[in-house]
Amino acid sequence: MAGGSIETTLELWASSLRDVKGRMRGLFTQKRVAQSAGLFLDGLLGDERRKTGWMRAEAAGDPGPWRQQAILGRGRWDADALRDVVRDYVVETLGAEDAVLVIDETGFLKQGKGSCGVARQYTGSAGKITNCQIGVFAAYVSQHGHAFIDRALYLPKRWTSDPARMAKTHVPAVTAFATKPALAVQMITRAIAANVPFAWVAADSVYGVGDIEQALRRAGKGYVLGVSSNHHFGSWVGKPAVAGSAAEIAHDLDPDAWQRLSAGDGTKGARLHDWAYCELADLDADEYDESRSGLWTRGLLIRRNIADGDLAFFTTWCPADTSIEALVKVEGHRWAIEDSFETAKNELGLDHNETRSWHGWHRHVSLVMLAFAMMAVIGHKANQSPPPKRMRRPPRR
Hints:
Elements: H1 6-25, H2 31-45, H3 53-60, H4 66-72, H5 79-94, E1 100-109, E2 119-123, E3 128-142, E4 145-154, H6 157-160, H7 163-168, H8 180-193, E5 200-203, H9 211-219, E6 222-227, E7 232-234, E8 243-245, H10 246-252, E9 259-266, E10 269-284, E11 295-304, E12 311-319, H11 324-332, H12 335-348, H13 358-382
Parallel strand pairs: 1-5, 5-6
Antiparallel strand pairs: 1-3, 2-3, 3-4, 6-12, 7-8, 9-10, 10-11, 11-12
Helix pairs in contact: 1-13, 2-3, 2-13, 3-4, 5-13, 8-9, 12-13
């Protein structure tokens, strides 16, 4: 972390920790429970590699893990209220009108069948079908930094069709089956309702077609969403003739259509790929919302790996005359949520949740989100340049 002296950095950490504990204190009706939640947060931010109940209890000076476990299970407090606290805290410091909301999922490997939502299902975290939970997340990414602002536990149909299993893990009775894209739409809707400033949404091919597109068009938000190679595209009058699957269109492109562009800087420098962009249609915003105006463009963005020629495809929606460079930059923001998952799991115990209940998962994850947000805010503040000193005029004689 760049910035000022060690003393200044330590004070920034101390003041930020006091700040976030103060923000969540109102969620707890009893002072001792609020104190335990604060100690839970201390444990997540501590040096222990495993953030288990015993490890957090030892760090907190408790004789056993019961108080730590009670925060996730027996205690009475609203995890969604903490989610909203985290969101408002992130936007307060990292907010920007051109920010990107990135949607993605991650797996939580589990043994047994008791944990809420656990099933044999594919997770990119392991790169295979395995016994796990799946969490869908929304990360807020701006020029100031990035942090999670929403989350949802995905429940497969084998769970939502089993009332006894749902009741045993304390899933709210009103909870019905929802696809991962449907969970993403719920997150986007919550962000818009809370007046979160953002201009774009980026996601991979799990979320790229259907209700998300329509919701974002109605909201006046741009998007770069992954689609499969066999997804069909076709241009309208006024645009170059294009028709066929995404893979077929890419194969037929003129070599001059490709540009080598960076999607942002990675650990090894600029993340360079070859890119092509096909504008498919211009549409008036009022076709989706009568209160909006302006011309928007629907398009196809294609990424080609320089080393092996591997292709990836994205459906896009953006204000007319948006450049390919701008769209590539938006797509490049997706790395931030991958980085966030890695950091949250390796340093903050995102996947160390030992509870089996619906409430336990959401409470644990929301506390981790708060810890991550605090780190993001500290990073932003530590890297801000100090304000210039005002020169004093010499006294008149």
